[in-house]
DNA sequence: CCTAATGGAAAGTAAATACTTACATTCAGG
DNA sequence: CCTGAATGTAAGTATTTACTTTCCATTAGG
């Protein structure tokens, strides 16, 4: 039961930092603001993390880019699989929304996270591409450029996510269920055999 | 023929500023760096723009969010129209890529540009939605939620653009022609009657 | 060649900001 | 009630950075 208060304080500080980083970026966020937002003394921030850089190190460390397991739930039914994939994708984006927002704002400072995002995109693309190729072999979908098609699928979901991330509800109004349902329906009909 | 040198210098400075803003954001970009990047003395920057804020005012002023005329080129042929629309959209995004990148990095500082982008998105969405509704009336496409469908279309292109903007060629490999061609083909088949 | 417009060099100012030091206070657990 | 861990207060330091001032150099056009 020791150090409980310490951990709470640390969390308050990292949480406040994340909020401010998303709004103003690294350079635009001062340690004083962080302390105010967290409701602690500025000195407390330095006591816990050493320096400003230390806060972001802590944030990066606790952020893991989970690669959701799509592979294992494949049923080789286009609608089921793609719907599942869409849900997992959006959920995954959303789980990492803070880090994505921060890393895209300050790619030089959060270069590691930035690289991880790119890697993640390519991994996901590969999975989807191979799924399309397999479905093509099985004769379930028509002849098409699987790689480009995977990129188009990803773009749609990334675009939806980025709209929401940057503009809240001011740009798009469809909720994510409608978005998934409709996009999958159109997409499936688009790549089906007849 | 007067003031020619002055204008050249101003352009060098705004150009350098744009480059740095895209990389580091407003707070992360110092006037000294701007001067270095522009190849002029730091003082020259202040002579021309008064203060740092003045540079971004100048940048914002010269940036116009053109709303490309899609309306007038409609031919009520799905493939032709959507391909045209896709090209115009990506061209438009690309024309404004600097301002988009900057405004998304510093939405608080470039709030006006940020608002304009949102407005632009909604305008574009409306045009596309009404096009779908009209095509539906004409019986060229099937019954569907035109608004959501417009958002999906926009999301795809926005996503592609944002991938390229943030990750260059490290994420997606399809060039924009392939992307447009394939996405339109799939999309059209998806929303067509049979 | 003269002049006015433009840009540069160097030094400096004032404010903001990351970070420190010394000391006082709170507060939970034994 | 005592103790020690955790936090707060207050004052200060060093550096960065936007911006200024003064003086000097270049250059293009008449």
What does the model show?
2 copies of one chain form a homodimer. With 194 residues, the first copy, chain A, is mainly alpha-helical. Chain A is 74% helix and 0% strand. Chain A is elongated, with a radius of gyration of 21 Å. The mean pLDDT of chain A is 93.
Summary of the model, kept short:
The structure is a homodimer of 194-residue chains. Chain A has 194 residues and is an all-alpha fold. Chain A is built from 9 helices and no strands.
Radius of gyration of chain A: 21 Å
Distance between the termini of chain A: 64 Å
Q: Averaged pLDDT of chain A, please?
A: 93
Oligomer: homodimer
Structural class of chain A: mainly alpha
Helix content class of chain A:
over 70%
Compressed to H and E, one letter per element, the order of chain A equals HHHHHHHHH
């Amino acid at each position: 039961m020791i150090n409980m208060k310490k951990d709470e304080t640390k969390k308050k500080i990292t949480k406040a930092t994340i909020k401010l980083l998303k709004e103003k970026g690294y350079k635009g966020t001062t340690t004083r603001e962080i302390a105010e937002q967290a409701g602690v003394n500025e000195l407390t921030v330095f006591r816990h993390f050493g320096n400003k850089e230390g806060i972001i190190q802590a944030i990066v460390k606790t952020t893991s880019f989970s690669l959701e397991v799509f592979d294992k739930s494949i049923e080789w039914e286009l609608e089921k699989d793609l719907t599942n994939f869409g849900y997992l994708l959006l959920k995954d984006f959303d789980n990492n929304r803070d880090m994505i927002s921060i890393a895209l704002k300050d790619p030089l400072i959060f270069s590691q996270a930035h690289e991880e995002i790119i890697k993640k995109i390519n991994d996901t693309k590969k999975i989807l591409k191979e799924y399309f190729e397999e479905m093509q072999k099985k004769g379930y979908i028509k002849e098409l450029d699987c790689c480009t098609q995977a990129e188009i699928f990803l773009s749609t979901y990334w675009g939806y996510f980025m709209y929401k991330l940057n503009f809240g509800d001011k740009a798009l109004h469809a909720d994510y269920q409608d978005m998934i349902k409709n996009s999958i329906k159109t997409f499936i009909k688009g790549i089906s055999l007849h």
